[in-house]
């Protein structure tokens, strides 16, 4: 949904407009609160008609989200939020449809809907709250739990490979993927707004802390002391620089991505990769999505945002218009009286 | 027309023709062609295609036999007929499979070119059935169909494979001659069908005429048949299959309700044509989503219903199983949704192309929790239109999911449908709310129907949130309150019961009281009514009560059942409707007649059973 279509700025809303009348019931200290606040701010900034906003979710802690935001909302079934959201968007393409999900909801039980929604490129904004654990069922490993993690259902450690949500997005020919941390409201707002403005399926992964069952799972990435060295915030058309002293960068050489230090071994800023999120070829973006500690920083920001194909809903409306324009059959009476009929 | 002096024309009331060949032989195509002509010539008709689930099973084997049965006549034709008067068998396997489905003394036309020794063995015959007396008692016409078809195509420049594939038209040409049918109608069908392949169209037309003229010169054909047009049929008709009728019924309901139609579905035999048909109706505002699976199909429909569309999903038994969780979601969110289940033989993958009434109990009970939905069933190919329409009307007026049961027999079978006028169909008034209604509450109900009101995203002043968690009565916030839950369960139940106030009473075919009441539901109507009618003519005290509304049952059900000394419940399963009747009306004694063979009933077997029951004391 673009600013134009939502009449950005004409409604003068405040965050209060999006606060739900009922209580918010996440655990104290849960990362979800920060995400909710960021989303409410972004809705204000987008400035659309609040009646045109719909939040849809599946099942899990994150999926209680629609109850906590004063828009139209639908709390669906485990894993099926993407399909419900798809139906809403097809039914009324004017709506701004957000799909709230978690790592279990989207990567496990809803994995099929997740990849097909992205492949279809329907204009939804999907936010994955990735806390790498099952919270609502109290602490079993999820499809994004790291190998070796001890949980209630992996007493000797997880022996499965975790999914990286961005990889599934890239593999499903996604047109938008961004990542942020729940500890950085500014970063969240930037990527969420970009996601809302993108035409097509936008996926935002938020590394979110579950204070009860997986506390500090993202600590190495988010803590104040190391975050500058362990995160790289990617911005379009800018060189990929990170680090406390802004002296580290990413270079692509000999078919390999590497971390380099500016000023060492003759490396200058000009040698660094320039972030190109709009590139239809997702090869570098895919590599960026896969980066992780300890060798690499985690990539943050809008990693891919490509207008390479029109969204499903736009194409469908186009087909609908064309069919209406060219058909002589205008109503049911026309239809049932067309073709092989027999008058006796 | 033949002017041979020996030639005579035999008048018939009705006739059953079966076309059978390999599944690539075009039997369904020539079957449709023949039924179209039949309809245009003013005959009442019913058809039934009978094909394997494999697309092209090994050629020449019984597994690969595809058939098309057509019953047409001057009288009311209620079924595709039990046994065929005329069989066309394009190979030994087709003969092997269908020999048990022809009448004594039937005319059997075989393609002798396909009766080589290897073909005969492949079909599972030990000796050549054309020579060993297997066909004694039938009138066998041996025609070199393949070779004459190919000869006809020789000069047309068509490749050998395509030439061979015209042979169904040769056989059809023979049928057109036999039944004095207008061959130009068949040719016109081919022109339309192969509009983009003029060479194929020309070859098929040439072969069609070759078959016609071949029959004309045959000594065996010193007669032809004529069936009078039905004088009772007045008005405008068309030949329609159950799946097309169901799709159109939904579209008609959308138009009458002033809503747009959305179908979220996943291809599954034998329901796929509903999705196909609706995907071609964008010009009438129909949106379809071919979802990634059955689950996404129904969930997208639930999303569309939330967004204010007339939403539907179509499936068959295995798909209904996958949709159960989402049906529960539609129950608790009290959104309108039509689920069309085109039943097939089960359990599991079962008999994908064969009809069975095996999903009734799944429809009634196949969900977690107290999860009542309206369950209905169509009973003829054409009335799939009416019941799809009514399912949609009930869904949007009562804010409830509705399961409409049809089956493979209705879905693929066809009959003549009297074309209605849209303005004559019942009105549909969705339970929508006006913008900024100060009284709006998500679970506020219509006091008569108990339907909650329907507010749609985009509407001003009606923002609300619903979902799968239990909701507080009226205000619709999440509630775990014990008494509230009990109240909501009872309200949702009562809402479904009250639908009975809005559906027609059960009709009895025949006397309202008597010796034997035959009870059926859904797709068995044609066979049951034919059998009952025959026995009534013979003076028996027998009536039929056929159910289209199953949950809730029509309000006069008990009264109807009370009027008879004996009740026999007939269904194509191991006893599902009888289970339901015994639960609802345990005071009656029920006899049963069940068949679970992936086949419709035969009129004759029903008559034998009913006669037996009538004789017992």
CATH superfamily of the domain at 15-233 and 301-321 in chain A, please? Thiamin diphosphate (ThDP)-binding fold, Pyr/PP domains
Beta-strand proportion of chain B: 15-25%
Rounded to an integer in angstroms, the radius of gyration calculated over CA atoms of chain B is 26 Å
Spatial shape of chain B: globular
The CATH H-level homologous superfamily of the largest domain in chain B: Pyruvate-ferredoxin oxidoreductase, PFOR, domain III
| CA(first)-CA(last) distance of chain B | 56 Å
Question: What's the count of strands of chain A?
Answer: 14
How many E-type strands of chain B? 23
The level-1 CATH class of the domain at 15-233 and 301-321 in chain A: Alpha Beta
Helix content of chain A: 25-40%
- What's the overall average pLDDT of chain A, rounded? 95
In the CATH hierarchy, the architecture of the largest domain in chain B is: 3-Layer(aba) Sandwich
Low-confidence stretches of chain B: 1-5
What is the string of SSEs of chain A from the N terminus onward?
HEEHEHHEEEHEHEHHEEEEHEHHE
Helix/strand class of chain B? alpha/beta
> In this structure, how is the largest beta sheet of chain B organized?
8 strands, mixed
Q: Kindly, what is the distance between the CA atoms of the first and last residues of chain A, rounded to a whole number of angstroms? A: 54 Å
The domain tally of chain B reads: 3
Question: Could you characterize what this model shows?
Answer:
The complex is a heterodimer of chains A (344) and B (617). Chain A has a domain of 240 residues: Thiamin diphosphate (ThDP)-binding fold, Pyr/PP domains (Rossmann fold, 3-Layer(aba) Sandwich), CATH 3.40.50.970. Helices cover 29% and strands 19% of the residues of chain A. Chain A has eleven helices and 14 strands. In chain A, the strands form three sheets. In chain A, strands 2-1-3-4-8-7-13-9 form an eight-stranded mixed sheet, sandwiched between helices. A three-stranded antiparallel sheet of chain A has the order 10-11-12. Chain A is globular. By secondary structure, chain B is of the alpha/beta class. Chain B folds into three domains: 220 residues, 3-Layer(aba) Sandwich (Pyruvate-ferredoxin Oxidoreductase, domain 3), CATH 3.40.920; 183 residues, 3-Layer(aba) Sandwich (Rossmann fold), CATH 3.40.50; 108 residues, Rossmann fold, CATH 3.40.50.920. Chain B is built from 20 helices and 23 strands. In chain B, strands 7-6-5-2-4-3-16-9 form an eight-stranded mixed sheet, with helices on both faces. A seven-stranded mixed sheet of chain B has the order 11-10-12-13-15-14-21, with helices on both faces. In chain B, α4 packs across α8, α9 crosses α10 and α9 packs parallel to α14. The radius of gyration of chain B is 26 Å and the shape is globular. Chain B starts with 7 loop residues before the first strand and ends with a helix. At the A-B interface, β1, β2, α2, α4 and α10 of A face α1, β9, α9, α11 and α12 of B.
């Amino acid at each position: 949904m673009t600013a134009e279509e939502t009449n950005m700025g004409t409604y003068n809303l405040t965050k209060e407009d999006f606060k739900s009348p009922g209580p918010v019931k996440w655990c104290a200290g849960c990362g979800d609160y920060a995400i909710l606040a960021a989303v409410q701010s972004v809705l204000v900034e987008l400035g659309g008609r609040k009646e045109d906003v719909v939040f849809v979710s599946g099942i899990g802690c994150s999926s209680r989200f629609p109850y906590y935001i004063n828009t139209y909302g639908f709390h669906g079934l485990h894993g099926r939020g993407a399909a419900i959201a798809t139906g809403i968007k097809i039914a009324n393409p004017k709506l701004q449809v957000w799909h709230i999900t978690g790592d279990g909801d989207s990567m496990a039980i809803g994995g099929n809907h997740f990849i097909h929604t992205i492949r279809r490129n329907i204009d939804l904004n999907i936010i994955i709250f990735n806390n790498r654990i099952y919270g609502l069922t109290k602490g079993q490993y999820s499809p994004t739990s790291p190998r070796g993690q001890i949980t209630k259902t992996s007493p000797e450690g997880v022996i499965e490979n975790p999914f990286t949500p961005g990889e599934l997005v890239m593999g499903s020919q996604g047109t938008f993927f961004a990542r942020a941390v729940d500890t950085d409201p500014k970063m969240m707002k930037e990527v969420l707004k970009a996601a809302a403005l993108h035409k097509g399926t936008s996926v935002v992964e938020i590394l979110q802390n579950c204070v009860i069952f997986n506390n500090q799972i993202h600590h190495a990435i988010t803590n104040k002391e190391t975050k500058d060295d362990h995160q790289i915030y990617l911005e379009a058309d800018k060189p990929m620089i990170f680090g406390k002293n802004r002296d580290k960068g990413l270079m692509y050489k000999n078919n390999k991505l590497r971390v380099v230090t500016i000023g060492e071994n003759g490396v200058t800023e000009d040698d660094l990769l320039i972030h190109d999120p709009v590139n239809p070829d997702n090869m570098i973006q895919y590599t960026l999505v896969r980066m992780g500690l300890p060798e690499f920083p985690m990539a943050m920001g809008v990693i891919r945002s490509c207008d390479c194909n029109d969204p499903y809903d736009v194409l469908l409306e186009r087909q609908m218009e064309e069919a209406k324009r060219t058909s002589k059959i205008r109503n049911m009476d026309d239809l049932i009286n067309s073709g092989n009929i027999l008058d006796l | 027309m033949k002017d041979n002096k020996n030639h005579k024309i035999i008048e018939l009331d009705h006739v059953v023709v079966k076309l059978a060949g390999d599944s690539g032989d075009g039997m369904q195509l020539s079957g449709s062609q023949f039924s179209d002509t039949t309809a245009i010539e003013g005959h009442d008709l019913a058809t039934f295609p009978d094909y394997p689930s494999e697309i092209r099973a090994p050629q020449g084997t019984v597994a690969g036999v595809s058939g098309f049965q057509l019953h047409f006549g001057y009288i009311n034709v209620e079924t595709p007929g039990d046994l065929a008067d005329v069989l066309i068998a394009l190979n030994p396997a087709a003969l092997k499979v269908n020999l048990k489905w022809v009448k004594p003394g039937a005319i059997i036309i075989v393609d002798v070119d396909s009766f080589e020794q290897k073909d005969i063995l492949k079909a599972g015959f030990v000796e050549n059935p054309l020579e060993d007396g297997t066909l004694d008692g039938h009138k066998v016409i041996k025609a070199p169909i393949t070779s004459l078809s190919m000869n006809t195509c020789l000069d047309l420049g068509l490749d050998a494979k395509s030439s061979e594939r015209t042979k169904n038209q040769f056989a059809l040409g023979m049928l057109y001659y036999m039944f004095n049918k207008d061959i130009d109608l068949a040719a016109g069908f081919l022109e339309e069908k192969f509009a983009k392949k003029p060479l194929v169209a020309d070859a098929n037309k040439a072969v069609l005429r070759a078959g016609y003229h071949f029959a004309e010169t045959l000594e065996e054909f010193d007669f032809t048949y004529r069936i009078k047009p039905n004088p009772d049929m007045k008005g405008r008709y068309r030949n329609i299959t159950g799946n097309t009728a169901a799709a159109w019924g939904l579209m008609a309901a959308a138009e009458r309700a002033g809503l747009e139609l959305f179908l979220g579905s996943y291809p599954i035999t034998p329901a796929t044509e509903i999705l196909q048909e609706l995907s071609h109706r964008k010009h009438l505002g129909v949106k379809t989503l071919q979802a990634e699976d059955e689950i996404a199909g129904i969930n997208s429909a639930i999303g569309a219903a939330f967004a204010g569309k007339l939403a539907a999903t179509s499936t068959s038994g295995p798909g209904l199983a996958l949709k159960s969780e989402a049906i529960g979601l539609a129950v608790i969110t009290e959104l309108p949704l039509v689920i069309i289940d085109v039943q097939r033989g089960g359990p599991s993958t079962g008999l994908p192309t064969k009809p069975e009434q095996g999903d009734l109990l799944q429809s009634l009970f196949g969900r977690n929790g107290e999860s009542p939905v309206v369950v209905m069933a169509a009973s003829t190919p054409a009335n799939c239109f009416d019941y799809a329409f009514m399912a949609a009307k009930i869904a949007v007026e009562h804010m409830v999911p509705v399961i409409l049961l049809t089956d493979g027999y209705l879905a693929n079978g066809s009959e003549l449908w009297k074309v209605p006028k849209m303005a004559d169909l019942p009105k549909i008034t969705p339970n929508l709310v006006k913008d900024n209604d100060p009284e709006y509450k998500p679970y506020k109900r219509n006091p008569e129907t108990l339907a909650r009101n329907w507010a749609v995203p985009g509407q001003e002043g009606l923002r609300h949130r619903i979902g799968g968690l239990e909701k507080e009565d009226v205000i619709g916030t999440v509630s775990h309150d014990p008494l509230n839950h009990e109240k909501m369960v009872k309200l949702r139940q009562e809402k479904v019961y009250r639908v009975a106030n809005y559906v027609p009473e059960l009709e009895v075919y025949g006397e309202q009281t008597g010796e034997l009441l035959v009870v059926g539901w859904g797709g068995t109507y044609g066979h049951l009514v034919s059998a009952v009618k025959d026995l009534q003519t013979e003076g028996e005290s027998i009536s039929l009560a056929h159910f289209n509304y199953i949950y809730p049952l029509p309000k006069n059900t008990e009264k109807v059942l009370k009027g008879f000394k004996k009740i026999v419940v007939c269904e194509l399963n191991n006893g599902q409707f009888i289970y339901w009747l015994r639960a609802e009306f345990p005071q009656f004694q029920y006899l049963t007649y069940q068949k679970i063979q992936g086949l419709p009933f035969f009129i004759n077997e029903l008559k034998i059973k009913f006669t037996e029951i009538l004789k017992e004391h």
